[in-house]
Amino acid sequence: MILTGTQKVAVLLLSLDTETAASILSGFSEDEIGGITREMLQMQALEHEVIQEVHKEFIDAARANEDFIQDARVVAEQLINSAVGEERGREMLGQSKGTVPRRKPFETLLGADADQIAAALSSEHPQTIAQVLSHLDPQHAGAALSRLPEELHSDVVLRMTHLESASGEMLERLDDILLSRIKADTQGGAVPEESRNRLVAEILNVVGKSLRKKTLQEIEKEDPEKAKEIEGLMFVFEDFMTVGDTSIRKVVMEVDNDTLALALKTAGDELKEKFLKNLSKRAAAMVAETLEDLGPKPLSEVEGAQREIMNTARALDEQGEIALRASEEEQLV
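^ thats the sequence. predicted structure below, dont judge the formating
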């Protein structure tokens, strides 16, 4: 499968977590971002071998300091660090180009999503599942565990607390078996459109406002319906206007006053009032005073504060503590 440079970047971003993908994407120009997100939305198949080959190409380019893409080494470092941790990442990038790094157990699964890992593990004994998950980073392990049958959850977690070391040969053999299952499952398989749209929406949620607006405009030119769907999947700071007061109160309880004041610096009067009325009188007065005393601030700092509050809100929403859609407020008990 021959990919263009833009398509390779799209494959890379689709295989990473949202925060890392957004960090990498923000390093491109607005025109490049438009092209990359269009490729992400059009990806019809992501075979595991293709993902691995793209990862390897980025890493090799970084080792050789080649201009594979802008800031290739930075991209590769973010990729490796998110996948295997900073210490292991430094080891891998420090090796000479001709050296083959020692294979870490189950690192080949890092290009697979949680559903694929769970499907590959579904027929295994809980002890085997525990062994595999213990070698994955917490984010991958937790996501895969949550997609396994509920009756396995406590058994697998308990076994993880009593695991004994396994031989490298046994782990490599198990790794090969799981990888072959994932390959068979993904061979020629399409990436669901909803998954692509949701990932793009999550990435656009954490980039700057001007970049988000420009990218959505580019998508809208090509496919207005897709742009509308992506917008529907997004939650941006201004959307707090549609969030119920009960949920707003729970969000502001988790955020310090200085961060809230900074986030409100570019907000409209109605949105400022919505937040302030859900604070105690004393806290509202402090935030209002801080906001009034704020001098000129870089837009990146303001948007950073807004992202922090949105991340807090999303976490509470996922925990069922709040509803980010006003229509869902009445469902909370």
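Residues 66-72, 95-102, 326-333 have pLDDT under 50 and may be disordered.
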